[in-house]
């Protein structure tokens, strides 16, 4: 059954590779149908992968091999709430060490240019602390980080 709302992500011929990486990296993720061109077309040949149905952490997605015209930007990202430092490290490292790149404040990009926010739940709680001074300390600590260090966030929150 086709989902009522599906995120369509544009790739330059690598939708299936990306979908398989997400499926092996993130829980509750999988690759579904791979749709191939039924005939030749201006930018490809019969049998080329046109689209890939996949799920990332329960979110239905469609990978579209649309060519080089459009690139991913930070205007769209997946925000992944992590439960501990081990999960944060595992997901961050999987993205960054497989052709991706680090950015600031828990953001990184995968090798296809798609942005991810690897965000420990502790960080959200800390910057939402009812004590404005504690929230500000945690926020300031986050602003100095690339991958989020939970122990440093908790220490900053405590003062």
Domains (count): 2
Q: Helical region count?
A: 5
CATH H-level name of the largest domain... which superfamily? 2,3-Dihydroxybiphenyl 1,2-Dioxygenase, domain 1
Taken in chain order, the helices and strands follow as EHEEEEHEEEHHH
Name the shape in a single word.
elongated
Oligomer: single chain
Explain the overall architecture.
The chain is α/β, with parallel strands linked by helices. It folds into 2 domains: 1-68, 2,3-Dihydroxybiphenyl 1,2-Dioxygenase, domain 1 (Roll); 71-159, 2,3-Dihydroxybiphenyl 1,2-Dioxygenase, domain 1 (Roll). The protein is built from 5 helices and 8 strands. It has helices at 15-25, 85-96, 121-127, 132-143, 150-158; strands spanning 7-11, 30-36, 49-56, 59-65, 77-82, 101-102, 107-109, 115-120. α4 (132-143) packs antiparallel against α5 (150-158). The longest helix is centred in the middle third of the chain and has 12 residues, at 85-96.
Q: Could you give the topology of this structure?
A:
Blueprint: E1 7-11, H1 15-25, E2 30-36, E3 49-56, E4 59-65, E5 77-82, H2 85-96, E6 101-102, E7 107-109, E8 115-120, H3 121-127, H4 132-143, H5 150-158
Parallel strand pairs: 1-4, 5-8
Antiparallel strand pairs: 2-3, 3-4, 6-7, 7-8
What can be said about this structure in brief?
With 159 residues, the protein is an alpha/beta fold. The protein has 5 helices and 8 strands.
Supply database-style keywords.
159 residues; 2,3-Dihydroxybiphenyl 1,2-Dioxygenase, domain 1; 4-stranded mixed sheet; alpha/beta; 32% helix
């Amino acid at each position: 059954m086709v989902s009522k709302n599906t995120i369509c992500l544009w790739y330059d011929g690598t939708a299936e590779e990306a979908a398989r990486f997400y499926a092996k990296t993130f829980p509750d993720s999988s690759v579904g149908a791979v749709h191939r061109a039924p005939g030749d077309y201006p930018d490809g040949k019969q049998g080329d992968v046109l689209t890939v149905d996949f799920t990332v952490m329960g979110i239905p997605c469609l990978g579209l091999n649309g060519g080089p015209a459009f690139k991913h930007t930070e205007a769209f990202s997946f925000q992944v709430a992590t439960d501990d430092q081990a999960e944060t490290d595992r997901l961050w490292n999987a993205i960054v060490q497989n052709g991706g790149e680090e950015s600031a404040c828990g953001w990184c990009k995968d090798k296809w240019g798609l942005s991810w926010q690897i965000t420990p739940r502790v960080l959200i709680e800390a910057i939402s602390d009812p004590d404005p001074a504690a929230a500000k300390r945690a926020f300031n600590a986050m602003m100095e980080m690339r991958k989020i260090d939970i122990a440093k966030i908790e220490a900053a929150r405590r003062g």
